Structures are given as C-alpha cells and as structure tokens.
Structure to design on (196 residues):
C-alpha cells in the first residue's frame, strides 16, 4: 500500500490511525504511546501503520501537521478579513480563548511535542517551530497593517502574550488567561502607536 504523504488524501485506515494517534499523542504524550496501542485503538495492524506512514516519526509529523492545520483553520475562521487590522489582532486572543476551551486541555501540542522530542533533528520539532514562526509573522503583518510604529517588536510581544496565556491557563489554572492577554495586547498596541 502507498504511504500517506503531504497533500495526498488518506485512506480510511490511515485516517483512523491519524485520528487515534492525534488523540493519544496529545492526551498521553508522544513518547508514552507505542504503535501497538495506536494499532489496537485504530483497529488495524502495526504493519498497516508502517505501510501508511513508514515510521512513528512520520506519524508524529502527520499528527503535528494535522493539529497545526486545525489551529490555523480555526483561527482563520475567526479573523474577519473585513475587520480593521487592530480588531483582528485582538480577535486572535478571543480565538485563543475559544480554542483553549474546546481543543487545548493539555496546553499547546507544538510546545509539548517540542519538549518531548529531544532529538534536535526530529522533523516534528521543525513543524512546531514553523507554527510559532507562522504566528509571529501573522502578528507582524497585522501589526504593520494596523499602523504600529515598530511592527516586529510588537509582534514579538504579542506572540509571547499568546504563549503565556496558554501556559497560564493550562499550568497555573488562570481561566481567563486569553482575556487577560487580550487586554494587555490592547495596552501594548496603543503604546506602539496602533490607533484605537
């Protein structure tokens, strides 16, 4: 059977494997989940997993890419392209709060994976890094469009607020962390010359 590769539709068995792996890797951790458990839960053999994905490493990458796509789509659906850039910047924090309520009970999948995957060459680490760079670029573009005097430094701080809100919510139990980050972002945006 052919392997699942980026851009190609998954077979029904590969889709089941990816769905099960996504749940298990996120809720239990990548390093604690073996392929036997994924196979059992997906109702396939280990051979099917390796036929479809080639290795656990590739399955981890597929999991992270799927999770990243879900987050980007979720966020994109909540950023009204007709709204002012300033409002879209703030809406990222509203979306984050909603995401954390629905999808994020164990914190950021990318940060968790980056911490778990100790091999600096593991391709999963690159996926996590790409997502964080993408978010910073989103903030940079919106800050520039909103008229920030220095869009890059503002984007850096907004990215840190975003990441900090996830940690505050999931580690410290701050239920309204995204709202608090949104209000801090509003103050920082004004300090960076974004008209309000």
């Amino acid at each position: 059977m052919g392997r699942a590769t980026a851009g190609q539709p998954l077979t029904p068995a590969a889709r089941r494997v990816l769905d099960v792996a996504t749940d298990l890797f996120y809720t239990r951790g990548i390093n604690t989940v073996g392929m036997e458990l994924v196979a059992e839960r997906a109702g396939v053999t280990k051979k099917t997993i390796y036929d479809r994905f080639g290795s656990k490493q590739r399955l981890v990458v597929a999991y992270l890419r799927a999770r990243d796509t879900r987050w980007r789509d979720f966020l994109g659906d909540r950023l009204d392209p007709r709204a002012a850039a300033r409002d879209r910047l703030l809406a990222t924090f509203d979306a984050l709060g909603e995401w954390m309520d629905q999808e994020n009970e164990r914190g950021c999948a990318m940060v968790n994976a980056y911490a778990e995957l100790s091999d600096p060459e593991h391709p999963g680490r690159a996926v996590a890094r790409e997502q964080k760079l993408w978010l910073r670029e989103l903030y940079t573009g919106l800050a520039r469009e909103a008229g920030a005097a220095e869009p890059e430094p503002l984007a850096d701080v907004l990215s840190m607020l975003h990441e900090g809100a996830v940690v505050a919510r999931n580690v410290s139990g701050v239920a309204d962390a995204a709202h608090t980050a949104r209000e801090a972002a509003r103050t920082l945006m004004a300090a960076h010359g974004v008209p309000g």
Summary: The radius of gyration is 19 Å. The domain at 56-192 is CATH 1.10.357.10 (Tetracycline Repressor; domain 2). The chain has a mean pLDDT of 95.
